[in-house]
Inverse folding.
């Protein structure tokens, strides 16, 4: 019987899992091979062998192992899910979705539907993920973890009422759940007559010393109090939440300063024209978070020639691989890594980037990659893809910094939790972008968030002209774009433009004054 366990299988599984936890991928692969040899009818050897091969970057080998198991056990749901993982790693998206769909049908186990839904969510296949979670919740209707996950999918799909219903169901079974309360505050504008402030304050009282729960609740309360115009209370909770987040972060601002110095030293002069090895023209949307990158992506995603691929990790992965191949040793930190960028082979970056992006780039001629921090890589982008376009979103410095400070990110922006560190990062970012403009004249197109909000059509026309694309009127109807999104702007980008966000930071001018002085001292114009 597929998956039947025995003492021998358990022994192999323990060894394989121990090696995986220790980072010994080769050892795990060897143990899985031994398991296949000794117990060929056990899933463990084939499954873990496939997992180890994927972790080693050997997707073809991983697929072969998964397929060999499925030849004997075609209805094994875990094997089908692993096959889906392998197909996606190989860029075979349609095959991956067929395998995942088959896995949904092949099981009746809620925990496996959960695993399939998790895979599909991270593959940005939200409707199919929803199917998996619907099945799981039909079996476990009061499972708050499953309810929360389904709510997030509904939110990503723009089904805000369904998302809110699921979050309320979480609270019915787990009153005071921080994530559900915060999600409801973000989905529903709070008013003096209708808000979740009392529930949030009570949940905060009960959070005690649990810093993660408390931080979530502080951010939610900051948003709720801001909505009803109680700015001092909002700021109090905002600073408290950020303080808790910063206390648990190992972030060292000196590292980012060193990275920017190394990059400017590494690319000191005008960049020469690079050879085009692919003919591809990806569109990179870069800048700080909360500056309109998602808005512009939604606008461009309405164009008939552009697929919005989301925030891809592909460029970081490709540059990392190219730098490692060009280095005799492993860079010890981010700053040393950045200092070696110039050694990276642009053809390797291009090839590996396209391989990493293949599963998400869509079928249209052009695609966007809106990973904001790709601004670190501007020269490498244009060396790898001479036909690429880089659109850089800007925003009033204090509006941008306030928007960042009031957002609880789930990772990737550790500079956001302290205003002084945020100011220092902002200064470094502006210095780096100014340098890129000097050595890449005319290659980077700046777009002000304020122009998108107040002069949408002329701004969009200018962007499309820079991208060598014809104007299409549906680009102005970005809020009708049905594509899923899971960024911090998930609610805003499904609404028509509104200009209240442009000056919202002015409610906190007094609290932001030290930041304003820091930026002005660094040469940043604030008028």
């Amino acid at each position: 019987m597929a998956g039947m366990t025995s003492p021998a299988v358990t022994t192999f599984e323990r060894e394989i899992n121990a090696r995986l936890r220790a980072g010994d991928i080769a050892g795990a692969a060897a143990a899985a091979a031994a398991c296949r040899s000794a117990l060929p009818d056990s899933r463990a050897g084939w499954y873990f062998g496939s997992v180890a091969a994927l972790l080693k970057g050997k997707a073809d080998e991983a697929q072969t192992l998964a397929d060999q198991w499925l030849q004997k056990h075609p209805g094994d749901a875990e094997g089908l899910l692993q096959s889906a993982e392998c197909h996606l790693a190989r860029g075979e998206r349609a095959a991956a979705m067929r395998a995942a769909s088959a896995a949904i049908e092949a099981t009746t186990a809620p925990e496996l539907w959960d695993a399939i839904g998790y895979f599909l969510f991270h593959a940005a296949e939200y409707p199919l993920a929803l199917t998996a979670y619907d099945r799981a919740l039909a079996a476990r209707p009061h499972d708050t973890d499953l309810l929360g996950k389904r709510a997030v999918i509904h939110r990503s799909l723009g089904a805000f009422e369904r998302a809110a219903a699921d979050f309320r169901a979480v609270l019915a079974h787990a009153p005071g759940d921080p994530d559900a309360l915060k999600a409801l505050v973000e989905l529903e504008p709070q008013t003096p007559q209708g808000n979740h402030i009392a529930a949030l304050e009570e949940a905060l009282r009960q959070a005690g010393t649990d810093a993660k729960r408390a931080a979530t609740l502080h951010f939610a309360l900051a948003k709720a109090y801001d909505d009803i115009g109680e700015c001092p209370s909002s700021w109090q909770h905002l600073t408290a939440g950020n303080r808790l987040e910063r206390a648990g972060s190992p972030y060292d601002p000196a590292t980012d300063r060193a990275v920017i110095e190394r990059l400017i030293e590494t690319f000191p002069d005008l960049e020469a024209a690079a050879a085009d090895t692919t003919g591809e023209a990806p569109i990179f949307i870069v800048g700080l978070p909360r500056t309109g990158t998602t808005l512009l992506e939604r606008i461009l995603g309405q164009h008939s020639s552009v697929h919005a691929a989301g925030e891809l990790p592909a460029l970081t992965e490709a540059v990392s691989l190219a730098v490692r191949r060009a280095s005799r040793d492993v860079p010890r930190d981010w700053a040393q890594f950045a200092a070696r960028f110039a050694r990276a082979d642009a053809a390797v970056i291009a090839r590996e980037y396209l391989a990493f992006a293949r599963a998400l780039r869509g079928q249209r001629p052009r695609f966007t990659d809106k990973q904001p921090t790709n601004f670190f890589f501007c020269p490498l982008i244009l060396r790898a893809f001479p036909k690429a376009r880089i659109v850089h979103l800007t925003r009033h410095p204090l509006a941008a910094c306030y928007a960042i400070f009031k957002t609880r990110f789930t990772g990737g922006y550790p500079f956001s939790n302290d205003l002084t560190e945020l100011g220092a990062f902002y200064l470094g970012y502006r210095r780096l972008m100014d340098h890129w403009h000097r050595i890449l004249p005319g290659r980077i197109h700046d777009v002000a968030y304020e122009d998108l909000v107040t002069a949408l059509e002329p701004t969009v026309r200018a962007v499309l002209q820079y991208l060598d694309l014809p104007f299409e009127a549906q680009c102005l109807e970005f809020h009708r774009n049905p594509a899923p999104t899971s960024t911090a702007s998930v609610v805003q980008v499904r609404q028509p433009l509104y200009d209240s966000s442009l000056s919202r930071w002015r409610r906190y001018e007094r609290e932001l004054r030290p930041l304003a002085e820091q930026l002005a001292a660094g040469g940043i114009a604030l008028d």
Remarks:
- The first strand starts at residue 283 and ends at 286.
- The mean pLDDT is 93.
- The longest helix spans residues 419-439.
- Strands lie at 283-286, 306-308, 366-369, 389-394, 444-448.
